[in-house]
Design brief:
71% helix; mainly alpha
Length: 192
């Protein structure tokens, strides 16, 4: 049976793409204006390989955003599998905060890309909303939160997170904010 000659190229291409995303995340988090040529060089790929994967800054930034938000969303299932629903929800909020604060530079890059006239729209936080919904429904079934809270309700309630300064001591303030939200979610919960 003849072997496919392009199979190794596909895995090499995938590794190149992943390396570009990893380096770009670090560089754009550090500096929203990081040159694409510097990202390609640090990733160890040529300009052609870089631009085949990401034809422009917008495509790169939006793919990083999608990937990172999916990581946050995916953590919800893991947390529900390892903790009671109420603790999983609270831990997930902490995970979201860690993402938000660690990726503040990336947020600047996203604003630059999506704020340009005629530029792409910022992707909807659909995976994060789906994860929030999963956690809320698990808590509702367990009787640990009031019934009827939507993912939009939760995301609006924790929106103050985005006002925290990432270079200050943000953890205590985020913890207080999330504890207040959790207290509000518990109010009106059926007795377990």
């Amino acid at each position: 049976m003849p072997q496919k000659k392009d199979a190794p190229l596909r895995s090499d291409a995938q590794r190149n793409r992943e390396r570009i995303l990893e380096v770009a995340l670090a560089e754009l988090t550090r500096c929203a204006d990081a040159p694409l040529s510097a990202i390609a060089k640090k990733a160890g790929v040529g300009q052609g390989t870089f631009y085949r994967n990401f034809p422009n800054r917008e495509a790169l930034v939006l793919e990083i955003y999608r990937h990172e938000m999916q990581q946050v969303a995916d953590s919800a299932c893991h947390l529900l599998g390892t903790r009671p629903p109420e603790r999983a929800l609270r831990a997930w909020m902490d995970r979201l905060a860690e993402f938000a604060m660690a990726k503040a530079g990336l947020a600047d890059a996203i604003r630059q890309v999506t704020g340009a006239p005629g530029g792409p729209a910022k992707p909807e936080p659909t995976p994060v909303a789906a994860a929030a919904n999963l956690l809320l429904r698990a808590n509702e079934e367990a009787g640990t939160i009031r019934p009827g809270v939507t993912a939009d309700d939760l995301l609006l309630a924790i929106a103050g997170l985005w006002q925290l300064a990432p270079h200050e001591d943000w953890q205590p303030r985020a913890a207080r904010l999330f504890d207040l939200v959790m207290d509000g979610l518990r109010t009106g919960a059926p007795e377990g």
